[in-house]
Structures are given as C-alpha cells and as structure tokens.
Amino acid sequence: MTESYCIASGETLHILPRGGNFLPETFTRIEPALLDTLQACSKHWPTEDRESIQTMVQAAEAAHFQHHWVACETAFFQSLPEAKKYYALPAELRQNGYRRFGGDGLFHQWAAQIHAEDCKFVSVHLSENPSVAAIREERAVDSSQGYSHLEGLPGLTTCGEIDPSVVLFLAEQGKSATEISDLLYHHSGWQVFAGQTPLRDLWNDSQKGALFQKMYLHNLIETIGAMVAALGGADMIFLGSESSTIFEEMVLQIESHFADFSLPFEFKEVRRAQMIEEVFNYRCR
Amino acid sequence: MCREKFPDVPETLTFDTAFHANLPESAYRYALPEALFKEDHIRKYGFHGLSYQYVSREAARFLGKPLNSLKIIACHLGTGGSSVCAIASGISIDTSMGYSPLAGLMMSTRSGDLDAGIVLDLLRQGKTPQDISDSLNKKSGLLGISSFSSDIRDLLKAEAQNDDPAAHLAIEMYTMRLRKMIGRYAALLGKFDALLFTDDIGLQNPVIRERTCHGLEWAGVQLDPQANQSAPLDRMSDIRQKQANVHILVTPTDEESVIASETARLLEATHD
To answer: What percent of chain B is helix, strand and coil (3-state, nearest 5)?
Structure first.
C-alpha cells in the first residue's frame, strides 16, 4: 500500500498520509529511532494502511538507513492558526488531541513554493480525492481536511463532510465502530454515484454522471468560497491537477462562480512524481 | 392533549424544515451509500425554515424589490441553534444545518461541523452514542471552548474586560466559522444582494456582526460601524456603507407570524 518515489538524487521518499502531531517536518530521514514515532502516527490511519509502516522501515533497513525519507502529508498544516486548528469541543475531549491536521500537504506545499512569497491564494487539488487549502506567505492558514481522512470534500470512497449525528445514528442502529468506519472510508464517496463506471468516464458522460458532476462542483465551489473567506480575500485561485482527468469544462464552471468577485484563476498540470521531487529539492537541498 | 381539551378546534402542523424542501439534490445529498439515503432517509433537511421564510419576505419588502429578483445570505443566529441559508428567488438553495441541527456553525453548546473520524474515535473509546450526543449537543460550541459560558454576551464581556484568552478563542472561532459559511454561499450564489442577520445573537450583537463582516470585503460586504452600533432592535435596518454593493440587513425574526399566516391559509383552503 505504500506510495514511494525514487528521485533523481538517489533518495527514496515514502509518503505518509497522516502524521498527527508526531511529524512536524514534511521530510524526515528514516532511522531506527523513527520507528516508535511512525507507530504512534499510525493511529491516525485506517487500519489496513498500518502495515505500510513495516514496508517502509524494511525498505530503509535494507538500504542500511541511507537515503530513505518519510514524506508527511500533514506537516505543512502545522502552521494553522488556533481558531482553525481546534474543533468546538469541550476541554475533556480536546485533551484527546483532536486537531485539524489537514492533508494532501505535498501538493499544497508545492503550490505555495511555485508562487511568490507574498501571494495570498486558495490552492485547489483537483482529483478523485480533492482538497483545498488557504495559503498566505507560503504557509497554510486553513485546510478542507481535518483530523482524519474523512472531513472536507468527499473522495473516491470517503464520505467527506457529513453531519456528525449520522455517525451516532448508525451506532444507535447497532453498527460497531469498525463497521461504521468501513462504511465511511470504503463504501462512500464519489463511487456511490459512479457505480461501476470509472470516474474519468463520468466527467464526460453528462447523463450518467449528472449527479456526480453537480455534487463535485457544488462541494468544490463552496469549499473554495469558504477558503477565500478564511483568507479575508485572495489574490487568486490556483487549480492544480496531477492527471488529465480534469477537463476544461469543469474548470470553466468553477471559474464562472467567482467571476462576479473578480477573482483570477490559474491552472497547472503536474505529474505527481515530479511535484514531489520539486518539493523535496526545495525543502531539503 | 389539545385534542382532548379543545375537540372542536382544528389543529395544523407547520414544519421548520419545509422552506428547504426544494434544495437541489447536489446540496441535500451526502456522499454516503445509497441505502442510507433511500431507506434511512439520511440527507440534509435544514432548519429555521420559518424564520428564513419570514426574513426573506421582509427583506424584499424593505428593499422594495420582488423576492424573485433577490439573492440573500441569511444568518439566523440564536442563543440555541444557529444556521446560514443561501436564498435565491425566495428559495433555499443550501443551508448549514444538516440531517440534524448539530451540523454547520459553531453554536452556543453545539459543536457544529466535526470530522466524522472524531466521532468514530469516541465510539472506539467505548463512549455510548448517547454520551457522545450529549457532549456534542450540550457541552460543546461556545461553552466547550470557553469552559465557562454558552452566552456570547458573557464571552464578549470577559474578552473586553479581562482579555480572557479562552473567551477570545471562542469568539474568534464562532465568527470565523460564520464568515466561512457566508463565503461558501457567496461562491454558490455569485454576486448577491443582501447579507442578513437575525434572531437574538444576530440582532443584538454589533460586535459579532462587525467581526464576521471583516474579511468579506471581497464579496462586496462593507459594514458601516456607526449604523451597525445603532441598529434598532424592533425593525429591519440596513447597516452597509452607502457605496457598498451588498445590503447588510439586521432584523428581528417572527416565526410565529409565519405559522399564523400558513395556518390561516390552510384553514381557508379547508373551508372552501
């Protein structure tokens, strides 16, 4: 399950989806001492992803702990201001460490570094698992993603933002936490509307994909609006994509919603491997 | 009970969710398995519909424009529940409360939107759904963050007089989340005509309105501090700066008058 990249300088980068409070840096060299930290992080992951730690560490060990790094997707969001970081929970629950950790940080870090330092903008990652971040002076000030993989925009199989009462409703029906977790992580999201159709076909099939397209746009447009508000106004909205699944039509529709507010758009496509290498070189070389 | 005591008086039922009955599917559906929608009817319902119906009609009257020509973002900020509604041509096209009144804004004692992963984590710790529901509905929100009061007036006082950091954080979170919700609906509606504040907190707290609007200038929202401070409590007023695009309306709400007029309409129809 581990997503890893070997980059030109000979380094191997293993992507860690969620680091909680345990990994404050985007890139951390894998050493034997890091094993405990990685185990601690794993409580933020869906259960089946936890074995990827082993894979990661074994790969590093085989290379005598040389040139292997963990690339943490949440570290970029350690800079969130308090009012964005906390949930409106009582102190005894906040003590559990529930924070907005963000997510998809490598992409948004990349978006930050390719723009001028004084640029205040909304960074949008158009993908099957989309995410949005608010960036000011190369630092994250807000994220659509929260404590776990679930909050924010729906993903291919994840539910996105739902009324928390829905989870309680399911529990009251007698479902276990594990069953509810499976439902929200693996049986929700865009696939509910896509059925067996691959998502990329749905972008173009206006009849079959109508509800999916409407929901994707609705959620994305609103989330971008929230992030512009979080910044108190933006210089521009940056749309980035790692694949050619995103079509001009969709970008145009998103743009049209912000035309009234004179917010300029920028669109850029990048390969994921290249993007990650650029972030590593910028941060570590 | 009414039926026993007043057997001859007709009874009517008015739904606080009816105003949201025409939400587009893209707004009311969650990205959850189809069975939860079809069999368990899990979808966004929204609340405060009677209030939104009242204030949107009043806004049209106040502005002297037909309701079907207006786009309004209405904030119903109560001492209990709070929500925001995007209204186009008198129809709700999205609203912040969801399946239950827990979703959306941070409220006096409700958490508002919350990562579902947190609820899962609490269940895994062995907490019962009832315990969690109590925590999220009765001990969270302004009370949860400040740890001393669910009344925003107490928090404003503690912030102004004692620089209380917890009160400050609670108010910052409250206004920031409200501002983001307004931003959501601004993006959905495009150029809109009015931002409206109503119910107890919306009507009576100029500081909350000012701090919410600060940071919405990009959407055409420009508040006149003087008009904001002196907004009357018994009628609608406009507190925008003269040259601003967006009207900022402050008004009491009157859900009872909607119930009364809907009931009268229903009874007339029954007697015809």
So the answer is: 50, 10, 40
Contact yes or no for B49/B92 (Cβ under 8 A): yes
CB A209 within 8 A of CB A237: no
Comparing alpha-carbon positions, the chain B residue that sits nearest to A217 is B26
Amino acid identity at A74 = T
C-alpha–C-alpha distance, residues A189 and A250, integer Å: 19
ipTM: 0.95
Q: Which residue in this structure is represented by tokens 């997510």?
A: A103
Q: Is B131 part of the annotated catalytic residue set?
A: no
Give B219-259 pLDDT, tens digit per residue: 999 999 999 999 999 999 999 999 999 999 999 998 888 88
Per-domain residue ranges of chain B: 2-271
Q: Is residue A44 part of a domain?
A: no
Query: Does the structural domain B2-271 have CATH classification 3.40.50.920?
Result: no
Contact call for residues A72 and A40 (beta carbons, < 8 A): no
List A28's β-bridge partners, or say none: A70
Write down the residue that tokens 């302004």 correspond to: B142
DSSP states of A226-239 as a string? HHHHHHTS-SEEEE
Q: Which whole-number Å values give the CA distances from A45 to A40, A149, A163, A213, in the listed order?
A: 10, 8, 21, 29
Helix (H, G, I), strand (E, B) or coil at B50: helix
Which structural domain, as residue segments, surrounds residue A161?
113-279
**pTM of the complete model:** 0.95
Q: Note which residues in 4-33 of chain B have CB less than 8 A from chain A.
A: 24-27, 29-33
pLDDT in 10s for each residue of chain A, 285 residues: 578 999 999 999 999 888 888 888 999 999 988 888 888 877 777 666 677 778 888 888 898 889 999 999 999 999 999 999 999 999 999 999 999 999 999 999 999 999 999 999 999 999 889 999 999 999 999 999 999 999 999 999 999 999 999 999 999 999 999 999 999 999 999 999 887 777 777 777 777 788 998 999 999 999 999 999 999 999 999 999 887 656 677 888 899 999 999 999 999 999 999 999 999 999 998
Question: What CATH number does residue A274 fall under?
Answer: 3.30.420.40
Residue A13 lies in a domain: no
How many Å lie between the alpha carbon of B170 and the closest alpha carbon of chain A? 8
- Give the nearest partner residue to B117 out of A89, A148, A166, using CB atoms: A148
Dihedral sign (CA A20, A24, A26, A29): negative
Is A250 among the domain residues?
yes
> Domain tally for chain A?
1
Q: Which of B75, B50, B101, B102 is nearest to B208 (CA)?
A: B75
